[in-house]
Amino acid sequence: MAKMLRWVAVGLLAAATAQAAPGDRWTTAWWTSQLALDSQNALPAADLTDATLRQIVRLQGPATRLRVRLTNRFGSAPLTIDGATIARAVDVASPKIDAATLRPLRFGGATAVTIPAGADYWSDPVELKGTGGTDLAISLYVANPPAQQTGHPGSRATSYLVHGNHSADPDLAGAKTVDHWFQIAGIEAVAPKARAIVAFGDSITDGYGVKPNTNARWTDALQRRLRAAPGMGEVAVLNAGIGGNRLLNDGLGPNALARFDHDVIGQPGVTHLIVLEGVNDLGTLTREAPVPAAAHTALVSRMIDAYRQIVARAHARGIKAIGATIMPYAGSGYYHPDAQNEADRQAVNRWIRTPGNFDAVIDFDAAMRDPAAPKRLRKDYDSGDGLHPSVAGYAAMAEAVPLALLR
Question: For a FRET experiment, which of 43, 319, 366, 396 has its CA 20 to 30 Å from that of 96?
Fold first, then answer.
């Protein structure tokens, strides 16, 4: 009996040391919003059978200790991760890691974990220091593929895949490459002065058109501005953009209201929220065919009600909610908006700009429109599709954010 009690005590001690220490202050230092991957974005099941997947992410804030959030949020069955590691990446566009920084990830002290369907799972904390801008490689080994893959298609970062358990290898020679993230959601870090801002949006926030491994989204450019600003270097910008996202209806991923609690409220250390959502609601209304005037009125009303919900939920957690005006898209051949669509956009933007609705406003519309044709993006800020900014446009968006709003 005494021997059994000693073993129980040892087991409890091991489990306790694997958990966060009392008094640790955690802040999300990297995040990506997830969705159920369809056949166009999912990996073939054979690729994720007896396979190691190495994924490169960039810390947005500092860390002295960190833990990784794995996800099976859209899984239809439990998912077993048979091994995992984290290390500093040697290069943002390479599977090579700094072997001296390699850390095994454990889960309650175990090397493997089974994540229930619909759930996320934190690793135990590991000692691994990094600053904002540090690239990390998360390597997952799985013997069997997920029944339904959860991921983020718009990673703008290359992931690497090889067969066998190579999660601790310093390089993955001959790896298959894919520009998506799979089964990872976030990194939390211990950093006493750190805090986070969530950029909540659609493909414009997700960085549509940005080449992989260049980190040229508007949120990346804003992060660089913050690192250079006195007193703002420990503020992380978390990108919670999903291509095609809408306030009210599902698209490629869940609608904004459906994912808000998970993607914003669920992040520790968040002090500010920037909301840039709505152009896809406006555009899809008439993309296939015209609708009566009453449908336009109803859409604007429902969008405004959704903004009110977002602001109220943010305030309930002490988060400052900043509204971003919807940028011009009259040049979009995909949505081909008419005068009524433009009137809808103007009505929504008037509400966003009205004092007291949001805590503050970032006027992306004013910053990005063509002065000679204000219903359209400036030519040098237009990627060419009339809807998404160019890389220069994303940089201009970041410059249009008054940093004083984020203090």
Answer: 43
Contact 60, 266 (CB under 8 A): no
Q: Angle 234-27-394 (CA atoms, 0-180°, nearest 5)?
A: 55
Helices (H) and strands (E) in the chain, counts: 9, 23
Which residues touch 98 (CB under 8 Å, ≥6 apart)?
Answer: 87, 88, 89, 90
Pair 187, 136: CB distance under 8 Å? yes
pTM, two decimals, is 0.94
Cβ neighbours of 231 (radius 10 Å): 10
Question: What six digits make up the tokens of 252?
Answer: 């490629």
What are phi and psi for residue 134, nearest 5 degrees?
A: -75, 130
Predicted confidence band of residue 12 (pLDDT cuts 50, 70, 90): very low
In 3D, which of 63, 100, 69, 64 has the Cα closest to residue 84? 69
Q: How confident is the model at residue 19 (pLDDT cuts 50, 70, 90)?
A: low
**Which three-class secondary structure string do you get for 156-212?**
CCCEEEEECCCCCCCCCCCCEEECCEECEEEEEEECCCCEEEEEEECHHHHCCCCCC
Strand 360-362: give its sheet, edge to edge.
235-241, 195-201, 270-276, 320-324, 360-362
- Dihedrals phi, psi of 222, to nearest 5 degrees: -65, -40
pLDDT of residue 15: 38
Measured N-to-C along each axis, helices 391-399 and 218-228 cross at an angle, to the nearest 10 degrees, of: 40
Token readout for 335 is: 């949505």
Phi, psi of 87 (to 5 degrees): -160, 165
371, with CB counted inside 10 A (0-12, 13-18, 19+), is exposed
